[in-house]
Automatic annotation (TrEMBL):
RNA-binding listed as a keyword: no
CDD domains named among the record's database cross-references: PBP2_Bug27
Segments passing through the bilayer: none
Name of the protein in question: Tripartite-type tricarboxylate transporter, receptor component TctC
Gene3D superfamilies, A to Z: Bordetella uptake gene, domain 1, Periplasmic binding protein-like II
Signal peptide coordinates: 1-23
InterPro entries per UniProt: BUG, Bug_dom1
SUPFAM superfamilies: Periplasmic binding protein-like II
Family to which this protein belongs: Belongs to the UPF0065 (bug) family.
Presence of the UniProt keyword Lyase in the record: no
Keyword line: Receptor, Signal
Length: 334
């Protein structure tokens, strides 16, 4: 076969290559062409909502389309997560996922959860945050040790609130009860905002929340912080000791918040969103906002950032870890 004949036969195939390249990489070409919804599976004013609004504002600015936050609370985050898992996989419905509905609930609601890990695709980890244990200022305790002593002297009389059954906040409270050997009744709320209102009013004696949504109330004295649940103190509240410092090293828990999408979302869109969010998190303004709330950088990649692949590895490890915690603590939901 002559060279010219070979070239003639190869020409049609070669002509297809640009189109194939566009089909493979062009899933993100022109994206987004219309508004994008970022579903928050909890009520407004909680850490999930705060983190979502920080990211959505910057995505809107960078990508030129509205990124609208939509709150769909219920069942410890399961309602909103299931909604996104079953949404059109086109990149226009995203989820601000949490450690609760993205890891803990798979074991806590085993047999009853309407979606599974493979129904969602990881895009980017946004931040990790300490949990904070706090009390209403009228309760006669100023430290976690004093709270435990008070609970032992008054068995069954204390209640602790969380943003919902099955959240990392609920499980953190259960860990404290297990480690300290105390009887404290869990009271689940439909979000952090309503829970903190009741603690500030003294209707609930104590609560557990992610630091970002509670820090303002702690700083102005409406809530009394007793301990953070990380290995080291947080720069956002340097005077608040860790649970380990207070004598309960087993009570260690870090909340996290990240973006997921329906599992069948085109990979180029997932990668583009992941790259954009990674860049946003490295902006000085975004870093300052997250740090002021007590949040930490993702630190999943060598440069301290995030990526879809790294977030996937992280989520799978979290599912295993929290599954063990749920089983050992005996945490349950109605």
């Amino acid at each position: 076969m002559t060279l010219s004949r070979r070239a003639a036969l190869a020409a049609p195939a070669l002509a297809l290559l640009p189109g194939l390249a566009r089909a493979q990489a062009g899933g993100a070409a022109g994206y987004p062409a219309r508004p994008v919804r970022l579903v928050v599976p909890f009520t407004p004013a909680g850490t999930t909502d705060v983190a979502a609004r920080i990211i959505s504002e910057r995505l809107q600015s960078r990508l030129g389309q509205p990124f609208t936050v939509e709150n769909r609370p219920g069942a410890g985050g399961n309602v909103g997560s299931d909604y996104v898992a079953k949404a059109e996989a086109d990149g226009y419905t995203l989820l601000m996922q949490t450690v609760s509905s993205g890891a803990i609930n798979y074991t806590l609601y085993e047999g009853r959860i309407p979606y599974k890990p493979d129904d969602l695709a990881e895009v980017a980890l946004v931040t990790r945050v300490p949990n904070v244990i706090f009390a209403t200022p009228s309760l006669p305790v100023r430290t976690l040790r004093e709270l435990v002593a008070y609970a032992k002297a008054n068995p069954g009389k204390l209640n602790f609130g969380s943003s919902g059954a099955g959240t990392s906040l609920h499980v953190t409270g259960e860990l404290l009860k297990m480690e300290a050997g105390v009887q404290i009744t869990h009271v689940p709320f439909r979000g952090a905002g309503p829970m903190m209102i009741d603690v500030m009013a003294g209707r609930i004696e104590m609560g557990v929340d992610n630091l970002p949504s509670a820090i303002g109330h702690i700083r102005d004295g409406r809530l009394r912080a007793l301990a953070v649940t990380t290995k080291t103190r947080t720069p956002a509240l340097p005077d608040v000791p860790t649970t380990a410092e207070e004598g309960f090293p087993g009570v260690e828990a870090t909340g996290w918040f990240g973006i997921q999408a329906p599992a069948r979302t085109p990979r180029p869109i997932i990668e583009r969103l992941g790259t954009e969010i990674d860049a946003i998190l490295k902006e000085p303004g975004t870093k300052a906002k997250i740090a002021d709330l007590g949040g930490m950088m993702p630190e999943l990649t060598p440069d301290g950032g995030t990526s879809p692949a790294a977030f996937t590895t992280f989520v799978r490890a979290e599912i295993r870890k929290w599954g063990d915690v749920v089983r050992k603590s005996g945490a349950t939901v109605e």
